[in-house]
Amino acid sequence: MEDVFKIRYNDKLDKLEIAPKSKREKVIKFTTNHKLMTAVFTSFVIFSGINIYLICTFFKILGNV
């Protein structure tokens, strides 16, 4: 029912068209359909950030010694 309001008229082709989906809608649909993949990707990003922080801290400690 929500697609009914997204119809627009194209003057060049002289017909009705459904508006294209935005990237945000595609990402939300993907995350709701693939929860395990989203959890894996999110944890990978978080753990990579923690790892980079720990490596930088370790090199700071080595520089002070």
Give a written overview of the molecule.
With 65 residues, this protein is of the alpha+beta class. It is 63% helix and 12% strand. It is built from 2 helices and 2 strands. It has helices at residues 23-33, 35-64, and strands at 7-10, 15-18. Strands 1-2 form a two-stranded antiparallel sheet. Strand 1 and strand 2 form a beta hairpin. The model has no long low-confidence stretch (mean pLDDT 89).
Specify the overall morphology: elongated
The total of helices stands at 2
Question: Structural class, judged by helices and strands?
Answer: alpha+beta
- Quaternary organization: single chain
Cα radius of gyration in angstroms: 23 Å
Summary tags:
single chain, about 60 residues
Can I get a quick summary?
This protein has 65 residues and is α+β, with helices and mostly antiparallel strands. Helix content is 63%, strand content 12%. The longest helix has 30 residues, at 35-64.
Describe the secondary-structure layout.
Elements: E1 7-10, E2 15-18, H1 23-33, H2 35-64
Antiparallel strand pairs: 1-2
